[in-house]
Design goal:
CATH architecture: 3-Layer(aba) Sandwich
Number of helices: 8
Strand order of the largest sheet: 3-2-1-4-5-6-7
Low-confidence stretches: 1-11
Number of domains: 1
CATH topology: Rossmann fold
CATH superfamily: NAD(P)-binding Rossmann-like Domain
Shape: globular
Number of strands: 7
Radius of gyration: 19 Å
Distance between the termini: 46 Å
């Protein structure tokens, strides 16, 4: 947190003066907007889509991440960024390039020029989705993206590492699993991240005193675990929820005879067969 913010905090009584939330209209952005009100005097919300009714503590900017000038203006006066913006599923590479690669570069470039101290980056478990389900991976596991979307998340983690090493801009890369109101299929019983645990993960990533360049898996305390957060324990993230409450939705079945089915063999599930997609016509 900047000295400017800390001086302002003493008067405002909130830890941050202004936080930026990108992707504010998306699934997780909508869950987070209310929580951020307790942490910042002003929450600047942004998306490429209409933002809807703004709360009293919010200021809105509709912008395309690929628009460098718009992103530069978006980062002005910001203390920290929660970056949920971009495409969150497999898509044609041209679209991913503009949103998840060019857009992310624009955000980090602007953050560095404006002196922003920390970015929370919504990475994904699809950055390591080609690890088999028989492995438990930690933050040092080799990157094995399961689709082009996952490749863009590997790029994001590398870019954020560069901006920390070169400029000291801290980042927490949150490898988010499946964050919905409830799991939608058996795989999500493993990758499930409740909304409450997601908000707690963001809180921990924002308020830990020093994070450097950190990676943490965003999953709840589920019965089956493919990931190990031991090396990110300094963040203090302790999930309170579990997918066990939803196991009755997916009754236990005998093992499939399709032992070579890649959607069953690899942690990325259906994403391992999702791409590459052809460019839009």
């Amino acid at each position: 947190m900047s000295e400017r913010s800390m001086n302002h905090d003493a008067k405002a009584g909130k830890p941050f003066r202004r936080l930026l939330l990108t992707g504010a209209v998306g699934n997780l952005g909508r869950q987070l907007r209310g929580a951020l009100a307790a942490w910042a005097e002003v929450v600047r919300v942004s998306d490429i889509a209409p933002l809807g009714q703004l709360a009293e503590h919010e200021e809105g900017i509709v912008a395309d991440l690929a628009d460098r000038d718009a992103v530069y203006r978006m980062l002005e006066g910001v203390d920290a960024v929660i970056h949920l913006g971009g495409i969150s599923v497999e898509a044609p590479f041209d679209a991913l390039m503009e949103s998840n690669i060019r857009g992310l570069y624009n955000l980090y470039s602007a953050a560095q020029k404006h002196g922003v101290k920390r970015v929370l980056y919504a990475s994904s478990n699809h950055a390591v989705g080609f690890h088999p389900v028989t492995e438990v991976v930690d933050i040092d596991a080799p990157l094995r993206p399961d689709c082009l979307y996952g490749v863009t998340k590997c790029f994001g983690e590398a870019l954020s590492r560069y901006y920390y090493d070169r400029f000291g801009l801290e980042t927490v890369c949150m490898r988010i699993g499946s964050s919905f109101e409830a799991p939608k299929n058996p795989r999500m019983l493993v990758t499930y991240l409740s909304y409450r645990d997601f908000i707690e993960l963001v809180r921990c990533a924002l308020f830990t005193n020093r994070v450097g360049h950190a990676i943490v898996y965003g999953v709840s305390d589920n019965r089956v675990k493919w990931v190990d957060n031991t090396k990110a324990a300094f963040l203090g993230f302790r999930p309170q929820d579990s997918s066990m409450d939803y196991e009755h939705l997916f009754p236990v079945a005998a093992p499939s005879q399709e032992f070579n089915d890649p959607t069953q063999r690899f942690q990325g599930g259906p994403f391992v067969l999702a791409g590459p997609m052809e460019p839009d016509a």
